[in-house]
Design a protein that fits this description.
It is a single chain. The protein has 398 residues and is α+β, with helices and mostly antiparallel strands. The protein has helices spanning 10-29, 50-60, 67-82, 88-104, 107-132, 138-218, 222-251, 268-277, 294-314, 352-363; strands spanning 281-287, 319-327, 330-338, 367-375, 378-388. A five-stranded mixed sheet has the order 1-2-3-5-4, with helices on one face. Helix 5 packs antiparallel against helix 6 (138-218), helix 6 packs antiparallel against helix 7 and helix 8 runs parallel beside helix 9 (294-314). It starts with 9 loop residues before the first helix and ends in a 10-residue tail after the last strand. The relative contact order is 0.07.
């Protein structure tokens, strides 16, 4: 089954029609390349001129879809034109076929056409000069160069510029794509940072509020209700203060994303006292340098804060221990709490706290472990974190 030829490009149809009409006009007024008595003419008369003209116009229809086929047929038509009186438009259309063959063919074929045209120009210059030994023989090389090499070289230059423009366009698209990916990643990272910060800031206070409000509603005791309301008010005020600090960070356009009031390890004492006020039995044991990198201090503070929040919500009755030790260039954090069902009111949990602690640890290149363990006192829930103590960039580790 024969494969149909591809449909010619509309511009090629216009070029073919213009070339055919221009050739017919020259043929009609009797303008030819050679006179009727030229000795090179083997096919005399005016009508034979139309054969290569029509064939060459047909080849123009293939200049984009099948450029090599069109050029080969065009070479045959030009050869026939040389044994007739000739038509200038036929030669002009042939130069366009050479140009199109270099511009639209494959790189290998385009390079081959260019080299062939160059060799033909050299041969067309040297051979006639050696055979006739007259300066006029150089005109043969000039004609061959104008008909073959000049359009081929022009096509090669245009092709190189087109390829360079296409490469630049692709690079621009890739750059835009990478910029969009970076922007998306930056937005995602910032959203994750805001989510961790918001969770760590208010989860502890809201959990205490939920637990004490449940206790106040479930027990018909005026003193218990009054104590619960006092704890609720205290946690509400502290939660609002934390929220104001977060809003201040988001509204700050000075580039300082972490204000000077960022939590540090010096605030662990107050954090533990707050947990005790919420009814949690907590012990704190720390041993570290007075000054640690700000990202490490903030991450350690947030991890301890989240562990105490989880203990308040989920831990069974018993003692909770918080231990910090600085050893061999790292800060080890361990929070141990009783493992079991809580007797009193429970606050719901989504698991976002463990995810946030794991993300904070990973951003600083540390290790994170959390899960139940067996001990001499029974089953416990242990969170063990190791943070490298190195010179991190100042600010939030997120």
């Amino acid at each position: 089954m024969a494969v149909p030829l591809p449909r010619p490009h509309p511009d090629d149809v216009r070029i073919a029609c213009a070339g055919l009409l221009g050739g017919l006009l020259l043929w009609g007024v009797g303008l030819g390349v050679r006179g009727p008595r030229d000795p090179i003419i083997l096919w005399d008369g005016r009508w034979p001129i139309l054969v290569p003209l029509v064939v060459m116009a047909g080849c123009e229809l293939l200049r984009r879809t099948c450029p090599r086929t069109g050029l080969l047929i065009g070479v045959a038509a030009l050869t026939v034109d040389t044994i007739t009186q000739g038509n200038l438009v036929t030669w002009v259309m042939f130069t366009d076929l050479v140009y199109a063959a270099v511009l639209y063919s494959t790189p290998v074929a385009a390079r081959r056409v260019l080299w062939t045209a160059g060799v033909m120009t050299v041969v067309g210059t040297v051979v006639p000069l050696a055979a006739w030994r007259k300066p006029e023989a150089l005109l043969v090389g000039v004609v061959v160069g104008l008909v073959a090499f000049t359009p081929a070289a022009t096509g090669w230059i245009v092709r190189n510029h087109r390829d360079a423009a296409e490469a630049a366009r692709l690079r621009a698209e890739q750059t835009a794509l990478l910029a969009e990916m970076d922007r998306t990643q930056a937005v995602t990272a910032e959203r994750a940072r805001m989510a961790r910060e918001l969770h760590d800031m208010v989860a502890n206070h809201l959990s205490a509020i939920a637990i004490h409000s449940t206790a106040a509603l479930s027990l018909d005791d005026p003193k218990t209700t009054q104590d619960a309301l006092a704890v609720i008010r205290e946690n509400s005020v502290e939660g609002l203060a934390e929220m104001r600090r977060l809003i201040g960070i988001l509204r700050d356009d000075s580039g300082d994303l972490e204000p000077a009031a960022a939590p540090t390890l010096d605030g662990l004492g107050a954090l533990v006292e707050g947990a005790r006020a919420n009814g949690l039995d907590v012990g704190l044991d720390t041993e570290h340098a007075d000054s640690l990198p700000a990202p490490v201090e903030l991450a350690a503070y947030r991890i301890v804060q989240e562990c105490l929040t989880n203990a308040l919500k989920h831990a069974g009755p018993g003692h909770v221990t918080v231990t910090l030790r600085q050893r061999d260039g790292s800060l080890a954090i361990a929070v141990i709490s009783p493992y079991g069902r809580q007797d009193g009111p429970r606050a719901p949990g989504s698991g976002a706290g463990l995810v946030g602690m794991r993300e904070r640890t990973a951003l600083l290149g540390g290790t994170f472990e959390a899960g139940p363990e067996d001990s001499v006192d029974g089953k416990i829930w242990a969170v063990r974190v190791t943070l490298p103590v190195t010179d991190h960039p100042q600010g939030d580790p997120e």
